[in-house]
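1st attempt posting a full record on here, be nice pls
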Amino acid sequence: MIRPGARAALWQGREVIAGGVLALIGVWLIGLGGYLLVPLGAAVVLGGGGLGLLGLRRLRFGAMGDAPGVVTVDEAQIAYMGPQTGGFVSLADLAEIRLLRLGGRRVWRLKQGDGQALLVPLDASGAEGLFDAFAALPGLSSADLVAALDDPGAGGPGLVSGALTETRLVWRRQGRGVVAG
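the predicted structure (as tokens):
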């Protein structure tokens, strides 16, 4: 009954839609009035607004293309398996996150405390799962993640193919284990 493209778009925006529906229910409860329903409705509107905002940020963070490789996030461990490179990074060992433009493609550089780094393309399959993993890091908010992606200075097209043209520090762990550079 619904076209596959429209169904996929609705499914991808399901958190935003659910937040909007929840906010409308809250407005309806406020409209009913009363000492109990007005505060309850206000709380439901706030909850729906928060869910919608988080869903909108997650939607903007999602995969924007089809880079090679697969990203999985499981048990606080990020894994990337690409055609030529790959590896694993534990969130507990993560020391720094940078957004790079490498060879015309935007990638996350996940650096561990011992200096090893994993490059993960933004638009690899499953990369949208990094949003929740990154947002769980101390001192990094979902707004910071979306701002890093929206930054126009986060890399224009490179002059040399394969060259690193832009880098932006998104997050660095405070305290022990931070590697300079």
